[in-house]
């Protein structure tokens, strides 16, 4: 005598599903650093990976970890291929656009994002 329970199984499959987006990112005045970030959001937690070209024209990759709290984004680089550790802080300025600062060591510069879903 077997009973099939499908509603709890369906709930388990849909609970905690992360939403994924592509972010087109620029850093610095006149956007000398640029690239794309693959960002997953689960509640207020953000994670992902980045593929960038830095201001020197070098390819840079890194992982990202951060949060979205009270309309404020805060992310940090994890294991950057160029060794440059940065923190990103910003807010939604208009639908699909985030603006803020990239803080790398003692240097702060513009950080801009266009979110693509």
Question: How would you portray this structure in words?
Answer:
It is a single chain. The protein is mainly beta and 117 residues long. The protein has a single domain, classed as Beta Barrel (Lipocalin), CATH 2.40.128. The chain is built from one helix and eight strands. The longest helix has 8 residues, at 7-14. 21% of the residues are buried.
- Per CATH, what is the topology? Lipocalin
Q: Structural class, from secondary structure content?
A: mainly beta
Unreliably modeled segments:
2-14
Helix content estimate: under 10%
Name of the top-level CATH class: Mainly Beta
Total discrete domains: 1
The CA-CA distance between the termini, in Å, is: 46 Å
Average pLDDT: 88
Topology (SSEs and partners):
Blueprint: H1 7-14, E1 19-27, E2 33-42, E3 45-53, E4 59-69, E5 72-78, E6 86-94, E7 97-104, E8 107-116
Antiparallel strand pairs: 1-2, 1-8, 2-3, 3-4, 4-5, 5-6, 6-7, 7-8
